[in-house]
């Protein structure tokens, strides 16, 4: 029987924003693009797939948005695992 459902809006229980930022910038490096702070900040509140669609359009990338999502998630999982191991 389900007794509770827990929703964590980022920053309430765990602040993963710094990990997401690091993962995004690692992905940017992997695909050889330079994203300035103004562009990065414009991503706030958007889903990863929408951000990646914008990047593909903005930089005329040959990668698909789905591939960028995969790269970013790989980096995020590594960052998260590194943090959890250090706890």
From TrEMBL:
Gene3D superfamilies: HAD superfamily/HAD-like (3.40.50.1000), Putative phosphatase, domain 2 (1.10.150.240). It comes from Winogradskyella psychrotolerans RS-3. It holds the Pfam family HAD_2. The keyword Metal-binding applies. Keywords: Carbohydrate metabolism, Magnesium, Metal-binding. The keyword rRNA processing does not apply. This is Putative phosphatase. Its cofactor is Mg(2+). Belongs to the HAD-like hydrolase superfamily. CbbY/CbbZ/Gph/YieH family. SUPFAM superfamilies: HAD-like. Coiled coil: none annotated. It comes from the Bacteria. One of its GO terms (molecular function) is catalytic activity.
